[in-house]
Amino acid sequence: MARDEVFAARYAPPLLHVDTATPARIYDYLLGGKDNFAVDRQAAAALEQREPHARLIATENRRFLQRVVTYLVAQAGIDQIIDLGSGLPTVDNVHQIAHRHNPDVRVVYVDHDPIVLAHARALLADNPRTTVVAAQASDPAAVLSHPHTCALLDLTRPWALLGLALFHFIPTDPAEVIAGFTAHMPPGSHLALSHACREATTPETAAQVEAIYADTTTPLRLRSRAEIAALFTGFDLLTPGLQPITCWRPHHPPTNPDPVWLHGGLGVLASRG
Ligand SMILES: C[S@@+](CC[C@H](N)C(=O)[O-])C[C@H]1O[C@@H](n2cnc3c(N)ncnc32)[C@H](O)[C@@H]1O
Fold first, then answer.
1. 110 CA to middle of ligand 1, Å?
2. Name one GO biological process term (predicted).
């Protein structure tokens, strides 16, 4: 019996989805992590057949996250962050990046994948400036009124919402979801996101990738560049605006312009009225 099957037979509670791939575990595999099952690796292999740069795209997304969080903390003075769809802990997590610049930054991690939640709780158990919330990212009230969020953050002061490689997993209107969070943001708050862009590939490849994710726990929907840009309504996009993530304030010129599936940006909430 394979190692995964032994694990599943002995320990897996029903919600672990050992027979169905999950986006968190596929992404973990693409990043070189170990918290994935055979079914996730099969889905990742199918993705890599359609998009040979799949691993590089995942790595570049983490680099984008690193640059965004560094800017937020080191330059914009943000000290409260909600990371929606945080994913499995990896080499450089949001609080670790943030704490290099300000050890007082508070981070709320939000996800709905049971393995993500279990690992995040274990990693963060002794850290009083971080917490984990099990919630649907599409439910702003559940996230913002969760006792852990309320205990850690003061939402009357500026804070940052991260939604990297997340909103393409939200089937309902993501603009409405973001508006639900924005309604509770004071001016000076920030929104950062990256999202799979429909124009970045051919219609055939887009359909194939959507078909692969249709067989996972959480289908993926590519959106047009205009739809992604509209997610920043109410925010002033900071330079260089909405870009392929490799072109957003790169530390080095992108070596390969191909893997631009994910477009991302960072905006600051303008004062209302
Ligand atoms: C591709 S990973 C991205 C992880 C991280 N944000 C990053 O950019 O490195 C997407 C994550 O979003 C989570 N996710 C997807 N849909 C979600 C939802 N409706 N509510 C909460 N988390 C969700 C998945 O479980 C997964 O951990």
1. 8
2. methylation
